[in-house]
Design a protein that fits this description.
144 residues; 8 helices; single chain
């Protein structure tokens, strides 16, 4: 899934730039690239901890929630105001709320994963919206 998602992101960025003549498609690659990295890491850790259901279940939940930015980004208001990651984080907070209600504590997975994901999300949005020169160089090399 990670490889396919990355390949499709590159192919669609090339299509948008060459066929549809959209500008800024190269900068947007930071969003799907980050999504694939976050999904891959969470799922790999879930597989690693498959014998520990309390870790496995939460990591699969976080990985699945992380893929919801594409459908949420279809809403113009959410996409235009960069709120799709905030909506994802609120979805993941439901898992935290479940832990607080059932276990009366926040699980360690959430304590480590959510701050790391928020930092990554902000970096992806920065690279997309600001499009620094180093990111431009990387995307031009990828897109050719």
């Amino acid at each position: 899934m990670v490889g396919l998602g990355t390949a499709i992101a590159i192919i669609m960025a090339r299509f948008d730039a060459v066929q549809l003549h959209h500008s800024g498609t190269d900068a947007f690659l930071s969003i799907p690239f980050y999504d694939m990295i976050a999904f891959g890491v969470c799922l790999a850790l879930a597989v690693y901890w498959r014998k520990r259901p309390e870790f496995h279940r939460r990591l699969v939940f976080i990985a699945t929630c992380g893929l919801m930015d594409a459908p949420l980004g279809r809403f113009d208001f959410i996409f235009g105001h960069n709120l799709f990651y905030l909506c994802l984080d609120l979805l993941m907070v439901l898992g935290v709320a479940r832990d607080l209600i059932v276990d009366r504590r926040v699980h360690t997975v959430y304590l480590y994963a959510l701050p790391a994901l928020i930092v990554g999300q902000n970096l992806a949005i920065y690279m997309w919206r600001i499009n620094p020169f180093w990111w431009r160089a990387i995307t031009h090399a990828i897109l050719g």
